[in-house]
Amino acid sequence: MVPLSYYLILSAILFACGVAGFLIKRNIITIFMSIELMLNAVNLTFVAFAAELKMLSGHVFVFFVMVVAAAEAAVGLAIIIAVFRTRETLNVDRVNLLKL
Amino acid sequence: MHLVLFIIFGAVCIGAAINLLVQKHPINSALSLIVVMGSLALLYLLLGAEFVAAIQVIVYAGAVMVLFVFVIMLLNAGEEERTPHGSRVAIMLGVPGLIVGLGIGVWVVTHYAGLDRIAIGGPEILNGTEGFGNPRSVAQLLFRDYLLPFEVTSVLILIAIMGAVVLARREE
């Protein structure tokens, strides 16, 4: 069997990659993908603890996280399309005004 | 066997996640993210979470990533342009963020020693591993103990659908 700590370390590395991508990347779509990566890392932690503690609640919480992530992806990508229509750019450094 | 599979797919996972950071074009990042999600689904199977692995592939690697790729192609997103000032500040913040995240992860793991003796009570603790994580057992928990949250998510999805339609609509 794989120790739980290995899964937690993998999850921490994935989450750190997501944080780094969120801060380093300048493309708004890639930033959004980094958020999805962080959510996936959290899901891995949930499932690992569910397997370790023999509790199914972790799986149900992963289900809810996925529902929220899917809703967030739909709304977020709609916002990205709306931003691109008005600004003609995907670079977050150029989106620095609340109103055009 | 489990350890070998974990190391293989964990390495694929980390490699694809780093590739997501390195790639300049968003479509390459999106394809790397699909690889991350696919190998995570295999890790879920290793942990005995059959239902979660299935919806990981269907919802994440399928639906959400199709939405991402669709938007990338719709907006004709090209290479990431570097703005000199902002990017340097972001890297100065991003690298410490990575180190702090890893540090917190390692701290949690090294302090885990007493965590498995903490009894987390609940009605749904299973005695055996039989049927653990298959759709039947997850559904019994989801539609009995978590019925109200499940119904509330339907409202959330409805609001998200309406919000997406309103936001993406072309201005008249």
Largest binding interface between chains:
A-B, 74 and 90 residues
Average residue-wise pLDDT of chain A: 89
- Beta content of chain A comes to under 5%
CATH homologous superfamily annotation of the domain at 1-79 in chain B: NADH-ubiquinone/plastoquinone oxidoreductase chain 6, subunit NuoJ
Coarse shape of chain B: globular
Quickly name the level 1 CATH class of the domain at 1-79 in chain B: Mainly Alpha
Measured distance between first and last alpha carbons of chain A: 57 Å
Beta-strand segment tally of chain A:
0
The major sheet of chain A is characterized as: none
CATH topology of the domain at 1-79 in chain B: Four Helix Bundle (Hemerythrin (Met), subunit A)
Q: Give the fraction of residues assigned to helices of chain A.
A: over 70%
Low-confidence stretches of chain B: 116-128
In CATH, the architecture of the domain at 1-79 in chain B is: Up-down Bundle
Within the CATH hierarchy, at the fold level, what is the topology of chain A?
A: Helix Hairpins
